[in-house]
């Protein structure tokens, strides 16, 4: 199959040739004809599958072939993204695909001045990429009207809900014309996402390019058990041993990012960090320098790392496991992209056993453990497997009691400390489910 056989027009084919895309990826092969045919789409596609081109190419084609010229302060298509980084990334891709088309594109997001964005929107743009909060601000200040909107794309919809954007999405929903095409992309499909899809989409075609919630199989993954306090030392040891050249490292908190970067820089290692407390320009600079290999180790929080697209990233290290198991899939999706192979190494301490268990359950695999000589933990990481069971070694009873104790205990998923926890259901991150006005909606 080629892009030409999918029915794409010549200016798009020319752009793809320049970019070196030869064959459509599975998500593109399914999404492109469906979007061209005007269908709504609900696509389970993780990052690295080529999903951006999957929605952007047919969208650009439809906007070129159909519809009126864009009016002042209007947009004909809107792509909603959870973070600024992803918005920038998606916009860069869209602009590349559109290089031979007479269409205008622009990205708006918070954390930067709104005035230049308002100025830019005066003439209207064909495709607007936006984060939810800034979009609403622009709408409320009359800098943007949505009555000309033909297509809405929700990119990384699961992430938007995880970041607490459900209310913003409900507000945006009320701002949209009822007649439109809607495309929803999400790495994972929770019940909340299905609910959102049920409200936003009209008779959608469902496509799924990898088994639900399963991490990319081009990524070799393993775990190194270690005591919490020795993680920095182990990281440096592994880095030197493996001669790591370019590594994206995930830490759980902003402080964690700063502490690790300080430690590495103190050892003369070329490291930088990105997290939500840093200004957008600083984050972008760190990312650019990482991409050009001026920075060797980039340490990031989950939020800051959304939308990073670094070609051929060989290695991702989870310095801490993520609090939300789905983030593990997003993190390791930074490597092994577009058919390349990659590695993902997680440094796991005893405190994180329940997070490890939840990741194994979600990805339906037991991660291989490799003990690093000299770093064997004093606090053993209990055994885990894909069933969600955490197997604790029975403690020696001080005094033999009739009932004995220990053995297999189900500790639940996110109970982070303490020896015994009730066998409770997983504690999910708090999410508000959006409430929409769901009147029947007619398509064009
Ligand atoms: P995405 O999943 O949209 O973030 O895309 C992941 C990476 O794959 C990006 O660097 C794209 O430029 C690249 N890519 C997307 N589609 C193709 C294709 N058909 N052939 C080669 N590379 C692609």
Overview of the molecule:
The chain is of the alpha/beta class. The chain folds into 2 domains: 4-208, P-loop containing nucleotide triphosphate hydrolases (Rossmann fold), CATH 3.40.50; 219-391, Rossmann fold (3-Layer(aba) Sandwich). 34% of the residues lie in helices and 17% in strands. The chain is built from 15 helices and 17 strands. The strands form 3 sheets. Strands 3-4-2-5-6-1-7 form a 7-stranded parallel beta sheet, sandwiched between helices. It has a 7-stranded parallel beta sheet with strand order 10-11-9-12-13-8-14, sandwiched between helices. The chain has a 3-stranded antiparallel beta sheet with strand order 15-16-17, with helices on one face. α3 (51-65) packs across α4 and α6 (132-140) crosses α8 (166-175). The longest helix has 15 residues, at 51-65. The radius of gyration is 23 Å and the shape is globular. The two termini are 30 Å apart. Bound molecules: adenosine monophosphate.
List the helices and strands and how they pair.
Elements: H1 10-19, H2 26-36, E1 41-44, H3 51-65, E2 75-80, H4 84-97, E3 105-108, H5 115-121, E4 125-130, H6 132-140, E5 151-154, H7 157-162, H8 166-175, E6 181-186, H9 191-200, E7 205-208, E8 219-225, H10 231-242, E9 247-250, H11 254-266, E10 271-274, H12 280-291, E11 297-300, H13 302-305, E12 315-318, H14 325-332, E13 342-348, H15 353-363, E14 368-369, E15 383-384, E16 390-392, E17 407-409
Helix pairs in contact: 2-3, 3-4, 6-8, 14-15
The structure holds adenosine monophosphate (AMP).
Adenosine monophosphate is lined by residues 21, 23-25, 28, 47-53, 309, 311, 337-338.
